[in-house]
Design a protein that fits this description.
single chain; 306 residues; alpha/beta
Length: 306
């Protein structure tokens, strides 16, 4: 599995992006063939399905949106199941994620969702189709497909696009010349978009290239970070867009001394964890990370970002 940093040239139309355009053409052809092959006979579940996904590699806000939808539907009395593919894990079969599962098995995002939302079912499998069938058979009344915009093997009643309001669609080019998983014109498959902004302003901008109806969401002050206020912090994470995490801490008035970034969905070695602890000891600081990163780092369920 290739684990990525989001390169800075994905935001511009410079020579590095231009040099990679031939590879983007090959990627686009392969993606198109894959999409139409899977779309030929999609699985149609006996319960409603909502898909949440993005057009870019990581950082769009899919996980917060999935959580918000799941919590809302649970309050309505629905039996909600999130369907994922265990990215970062080693699953070979269908599995309902349990609190005692390891990030090595089911991936970090599955554990983050499970621990952040009591009562939620989380199902993972290499093929979303198999996980959706198992969840529906187990009694779920609503399914949420996580990160499934480009995966048409399961039919859905609603298709929601998550978009990062800060970086938008980058330079608008396909991988590897840009951050796009599909051409921008494919956004028309979505019913609407939810654009996530790091902070409130009088006018929340719509990202360039977005041409479908959009709702705007603002990431406000985070009460879970209260325990970090007044402390010196060394922040680390394994995200596609680590700057979003660091900015979130600073927007919440956290004193970040150092930022240590790893590739997206990074699995931490013992040596890397020892190095982070030693940095914190030398600086007399507290280590802070994301819930998903925490689960991947120490291989136990972790809800809080400390």
């Amino acid at each position: 599995m290739v684990k990525l940093y989001a390169p800075t040239f994905w935001r511009t139309l410079g020579w590095r992006s231009l040099a990679l355009l031939p590879l983007s053409g090959l990627y686009g052809l392969g993606q198109r063939l894959h999409f139409y092959w899977r779309a030929h006979h999609p699985y149609r579940a006996p319960v409603p399905i909502i898909s949440v996904g993005g057009l870019t590699v990581g950082g769009g806000g899919k996980t917060p949106l999935v959580l918000a939808l799941a919590k809302f539907l649970l309050k309505q009395g629905e039996q909600v199941a999130v369907i994922g593919h265990g990215y970062g894990g080693r699953l070979q079969t269908v599995r309902r994620v349990q609190p005692t599962d390891s990030a090595w098995e089911v991936g970090d995002e599955a554990l983050e969702l499970l621990h952040a939302c009591p009562g939620l079912q989380v199902w993972c499998a290499p093929r979303r189709r198999a996980a959706a069938m198992a969840a529906a058979a187990s009694g779920a009344t609503v399914l949420i497909l996580d990160d499934a915009f480009s995966h048409p093997g399961v039919a859905r009643q609603r298709n929601i696009l998550a978009v990062d309001g800060l970086h938008g669609f980058g330079n608008g080019r396909l991988l590897p010349a840009g951050p796009l998983l599909e051409p921008l014109r494919r956004q028309k498959r979505a019913d609407f978009a939810v654009v996530f902004h790091p902070r409130a302003s009088k006018r929340l901008p719509t990202p360039s290239g977005l041409h479908i109806p959009a709702f705007h969401a603002v990431l406000g002050r985070d009460p879970s970070l209260n325990k970090l206020r007044g402390k010196k912090v060394i922040a680390f994470c394994g995200l596609a867009l680590p700057s979003k995490f660091y900015s979130h801490l600073k927007d919440n008035k956290i004193n970040v001394l150092e930022e240590v970034s790893f590739p997206d969905h990074h699995t931490y070695s013992a040596e890397e964890l020892v190095d982070l602890k030693q940095r914190a000891l030398r600086a007399k600081a507290t280590l802070a990370t994301t819930p998903a990163t925490c689960g991947a780092a120490i291989d136990v369920p972790c809800r809080y970002a400390t």
